[in-house]
Amino acid sequence: xxxxxxxxxxxxxxxxxxxxxxxxxxxxxxxxxxxxxxxxxxxxxxxxxxxxxxxxxxxxxxxxxxxxxxxxxxxxxxxxxxxxxxxxxxxxxxxxxxxxxxxxxxxxxxxxxxxxxxxxxxxxxxxxxxxxxxxxxxxxxxxxxxxxxxxxxxxxxxxxxxxxxxxxxxxxxxxxxxxxxxxxxxxxxxxxxxxxxxxxxxxxxxxxxxxxxxx
Amino acid sequence: xxxxxxxxxxxxxxxxxxxxxxxxxxxxxxxxxxxxxxxxxxxxxxxxxxxxxxxxxxxxxxxxxxxxxxxxxxxxxxxxxxxxxxxxxxxxxxxxxxxxxxxxxxxxxxxxxxxxxxxxxxxxxxxxxxxxxxxxxxxxxxxxxxxxxxxxxxxxxxxxxxxxxxxxxxxxxxxxxxxxxxxxxxxxxxxxxxxxxxxxxxxxxxxxxxxxxxxxxxxxxxxxxxxxxxxxxxxxxxxxxxxxxxxxxxxxxxxxxxxxxxxxxxxxxxxxxxxxxxxxxxxxxxxxxxxxxxxxxxxxxx
Lengths: 215, 302
What we know:
By secondary structure, chain A is α/β, with parallel strands linked by helices. Chain A has helices at residues 17-29, 40-45, 66-75, 91-99, 112-144, 148-158, 163-170, 174-188, 193-205, and strands at residues 9-13, 33-37, 53-58, 82-86, 104-107.
């Protein structure tokens, strides 16, 4: 499982071994862990690190262009921040890259500080993304532990229904609703109805079953 | 062995992906393994035919962005070769700088990691050597071209070069004068290469003058004979001219007086002229401007 608290990793994809070695050395000098790969296929075969990750990518790797690859990654829902490097980039290319969500577009040779700044920004973003994912995973786990009846009660509670109304809606006693509600809020670790509503929103926004508007 | 392959790799010609790489098409670049293991690099058509049957010019790739459209089906500058070299140099330069920056960072901490510094500096040296190799190869490429032996009128070749660049000259508000010596015998040389040199000198002159606001921008191209009866071609501009230091160094690879100059063009020009057993040099023009002149030996025609 991904974990925001793990050590960050920088992935370097460049077909030039000298560039790979130099970048790895630079990152070592600031205490950053890095992995290098010579090609995009090798990158695709490798497993993404579980901690915060940032990708430093040469735009013109043999085979496919880095920009096409960027589109493929986002299509595959891989949201690692990408920093592009190029031997001689032009303005349209950099605009295209930035529009497609690149974090930075650096022209070789570049200032080490520019790269490091971009990497730190990328890692911070990925860390935040992982934290959100981690929270969502935990939330989902809690939701999964609810019984069908508890989910039903939760659905009514977040709509602002009172216990008595819920009892009427689903045809059980108010006492039983209270018991289900108590179990549900304990399992969901929701201190208040407002918190519970926020959780329901997040689950719903993530497209998870249960708190759907049309179901 | 495999030197052609090594060069091909060195210059990335066959390995250049289409994605915006240097536009030096494979089909216009030949690497021929000679029997003696020497490598010839030629730019032009792969099946060389007599000049009258074929215009080599149309095989030249052109950088449309910088040159007039009229130019596209004709002579290209040395920029193709230069751009290719520059691309190849850019990678080791980037790697070299990154290693140097890393070494500084390793030195900066409380407890400098000297092992890392040593390793980084070793790589810096290796990369520096790689860059030198690339430069040497570029020079070697130009030197090793066995120049074609065309017999042609130098005045006509110059006039053609000027005509092809008329648009750039007009755009830059440069007036061109020619002072051609009449009755010159035919030059025996590689016509396209000589035209490349002329084009390069003209382009440099135009660029030098483009920064001049006052006074007229005049370009004078003249031909004549030296005392030893060699051909002499002079390209004179009314630009800011060259200081003493620049006069010494303009032909050095990677020396440029232009803010964005690559510093390769004149170095290759000199290589071309020297391959023809001629000389290329620069001098100051009074009261201002620079003159670039080259000679080509007169070869007795059979």
